[in-house]
Design brief:
Largest sheet: 2 strands, antiparallel
Number of strands: 2
Number of domains: 3
Number of helices: 8
C-alpha cells in the first residue's frame, strides 16, 4: 500500500495542474450538481401556481409568487430575519471583544495588517466606482473624499 501511494505521489508531483484538478474536482462537482441544481429547481418551481383549495402545485405559469413577496407579512419576515442576523453578528463581535482580546493580542501585527488589508481591498468596488464616475461625477468626488478622510483619520 505504501509503495502504491509513493508511486502515485511521484506521478502527481511533476503534474501540478493535474493534482490541482483532482483536488478541486469533488467540491466543484458538488457545487455544480447539488447546490446549483437545487437553486435551479427552486427557481423553476417558483413560477408555478399553488392551488388555493387543494394546496397542490399546478403547472400553470405565473409570477404571482414574486408579487406576494411584497405583502406586508412577508416584508415583516424579511425585516425580522435581517434584524436577527444583525443581532447575532453584534453578539459575536461583542464576544470577541470581551473574551478574545487577549489571545488575539499575541497575533503578529503583520498578520492582522494583512487580514485588514485583504478585507479593505475586497470592500472597494472598482467597477461600481467607475459607474458612479461616469453617471455622477460629483458623487464620485464625495466618495473619494470620504475614503481619503477615513484613511487619514485611521492613522
Amino acid at each position: 500500500m505504501a509503495a502504491a501511494l509513493t508511486r502515485l505521489s511521484d506521478a502527481l508531483y511533476p503534474r501540478q495542474r493535474l493534482t490541482l484538478l483532482l483536488l478541486l474536482a469533488p467540491p466543484l462537482i458538488w457545487f455544480g450538481v447539488v447546490y446549483l441544481g437545487a437553486l435551479f429547481n427552486l427557481l423553476a418551481t417558483s413560477v408555478f401556481k399553488l392551488d388555493d383549495f387543494s394546496g397542490r402545485v399546478t403547472t400553470e405559469l405565473t409570477l404571482q409568487n414574486f408579487l406576494d413577496l411584497l405583502a406586508p407579512a412577508n416584508v415583516d419576515v424579511v425585516v425580522r430575519s435581517t434584524l436577527m442576523a444583525l443581532m447575532v453578528t453584534a453578539a459575536c463581535v461583542a464576544i470577541v471583544l470581551l473574551f478574545l482580546t487577549k489571545p488575539l493580542s499575541y497575533m503578529p501585527n503583520a498578520v492582522l495588517a494583512a487580514v485588514v488589508f485583504i478585507i479593505a481591498v475586497r470592500l472597494v468596488d472598482i467597477a461600481g466606482m467607475r459607474g458612479i464616475l461616469r453617471r455622477r461625477p460629483v458623487e464620485f468626488g464625495i466618495a473619494c473624499a470620504t475614503a481619503a478622510i477615513v484613511v487619514r483619520m485611521s492613522r
